[in-house]
Amino acid sequence: MKLTTAGESHGKALIGIIEGLPSNLKIDIDEINKYLSLRQSGYGRGGRQKIERDSVEIISGVRNLVTLGSPLSFAIINKDYDNWREYMAPEGCDVNAKKLTKVRPGHADLTGLIKYGQTDARNILERASARETAARVAAGTVARQYLRNLGVEISGYVSGVCGERDENEYNFEDTLRSKEQPLFMLNAEVQKRAIRKIDELKENGDTAGGVIEIRVKGLKSGFGSCMRYCEKLDASLCSAVMSVQAIKGVEVGYGFMSAYLSGSEAHDEIFFDDGKYFRKTNKAGGIEGGMSNGGEIVLRAAMKPIPTLMKGLNTIDYSTNLPAVASNERSDVCAICAAEIILESVVAFALAETVSLRLGGDNMREVIERYSALKG
To answer: SS3 for 16-53, per residue?
Structure first.
């Protein structure tokens, strides 16, 4: 299974092509649109979310809501394009009116200008923008539907925002309630403090990041490989998470905490009863030796504060190399809820890639039969 995306933040549309989907997978377009809407939600979001509400249009690979086995292509039309047509049109436009040279620290602007031989950072930021992730949410929701046929579910929540941390542990079912909250947090008191912090940052023209926990339930053991490093499940999932804009750290299970524990404290003891192997703890986060072990997969990711600040940081003007204050594009104060939905989606797609690699199958009946035949 493979995903290719295209499109610019203020271009005509975001495009996605999914190759390798088996036939006869029922596609729920309403669910795709639900997750696209959730990606635009959350406390601390900016003005663009009020301009357009994303929805998906499937172009090919599906007939009567069922996949055909051919590439599934889709589009998410940028409704804001009408306001940007004269600056972004591929057919010809005014490239000077929205030129950006006061490069933003923490963004792709400066490095992208140098790498791609450009003089206008708009040619970099339009693709580097997190707007691109709408396509990955749509594709990830298709992957979620594929995995659900096997009894695999994905959820998550926000455990911290700008230093306000929730140290509690939650079961998978608890995390399903997170989307009812303004910051996708499960601790009401921590969420109140986080909202106050976001309000303060907004007043100061500043931004916030946070920590997200993603959970996968129902995956059988043996997905991934200990024989080929490029097929290790944790490597695949962490790579998918790190590919999301603003993510600067990721850990599996106890992660960095494991470095501070002794071996007797850091590992999950193994037991056998009623014909099954099991572990009473899940410090490994459901992955051992690069393979799923049948437990819940637990991933945590650190999102840095958004680099587009309203007050602007010190930088240089690329056109003159003189000191300047960084340009500010329309932006959010905090996009942690969007990041949580995006991470669920990229994990879903990376996991679907791993599952399809092992199971193969040209149609969903074959996929389900092969998965059912595996030991847990």
So the answer is: EEEECCCECCECCHHHHHHHHHHHCCCCCCCCHHHHCC
- Tokens 């003089």: give the residue: 119
Q: If you search the block for the tokens 């929540």, which residue do you land on?
A: 157
Whether the Cβ atoms of residue 345 and residue 144 lie closer than 8 Å to each other:
yes
Helix/strand number for the chain, H first, E second: 12, 17
Predicted confidence (pLDDT) per residue in 307-365, tens digit: 888 888 999 999 999 999 998 766 789 999 999 999 999 999 999 999 999 999 999 99
pTM recorded for the entire structure: 0.95
Answer for the pair 144, 154: CB distance below 8 angstroms, yes or no.
Answer: yes
Contacts of 212 (CB under 8 A, 6+ apart): 156, 157, 158, 159, 300, 301, 303, 336, 339, 340, 343
Q: How far apart are CA 114 and CA 232, in angstroms?
A: 34
Q: Is the predicted pLDDT of residue 30 greater than 60, yes or no? A: yes
Alpha carbon distances (Å) from 352 to 35, 171, 188: 17, 23, 34
Look-up: residue for tokens 């092509």? 17
Number of Cβ within 10 Å of residue 251's Cβ equals 20
Give the HSE-up count for residue 118: Cα atoms under 13 Å, Cβ half-sphere: 20
CA 74 to chain centre: 18
